[in-house]
Amino acid sequence: MNFWEYVAGRHQQLLTDAYQHASAVFQCMVVATVLGVLIGVATYRSEWAGNLVTTATATVLTVPALALIGLLIPVVGLGVAPTVIALTLYGLLPVVRNAIVGLRGVDPSLVDAATGIGMSRPARLLRIELPLAWPPILTGIRVATQMLMGIAAIAAYASGPGLGNVIFRGLASLGSANALNQVLAGTLGIIVLALLFDAAYVLIGRLTIPRGIRA
Q1: Predicted local confidence at residue 112, as pLDDT
Q2: Is 37 exposed, middle or buried (0-12, 13-18, 19+ CB in 10 A)?
Q3: Which residues cross the membrane (predicted)?
Q4: Which of 40, 12, 13, 150 is nearest to 96 (CA)?
Q5: % residues pLDDT > 70 (the chain)
Q6: Tens digits of per-residue pLDDT, 40-54?
Q7: Closest CA to 17 of 200, 181, 170, 153
Q8: Helices and strands of the chain, counted as H and E runs
Q9: DSSP for residue 106
């Protein structure tokens, strides 16, 4: 059986795994984005606090994904829980770092002008600072999503959802008839999902970032 015959014969299962993979990454990125922006908002005004949270989130990336998931299994068990925790932690650094950089890069004169016309700090943050910081924040989200696409495959080690299960099954049965087809199908599926997510982010950027800011 060649690769295309394998895909045609198992397309329903592959589509289910792809959906679960995309869903896990999307939901974890939503959580990581909310947490990352909140952390950035809370720390960008302080040099030491910004450096502290950036270093803390960067430290997570030094832990191999397989090791982190393995450490989480005794605490939260197998399945979705270790997957969600690990992916959220890995997705924080690009969002936190870019949120801090974006907020610090807002022209102070614009903030002063907003203060001068009586805007409160929450109003300045929501109407001036965050919209101007959105382009680097979106870039951080794109980078984090591409990272999580690959890391999510490791979640199959903890019985997590997604295309990693197809890859692991293939690796576990190397030498059998469809082992390479399984590995290739899972890998290509992740690549396609990553490209689709990135295209969606490009579209979001075009819809939400004014042309002048993009330029």
Answers
A1: 82
A2: buried
A3: 24-44, 51-73, 148-171, 183-204
A4: 40
A5: 98
A6: 999 999 999 999 999
A7: 153
A8: 11, 0
A9: S
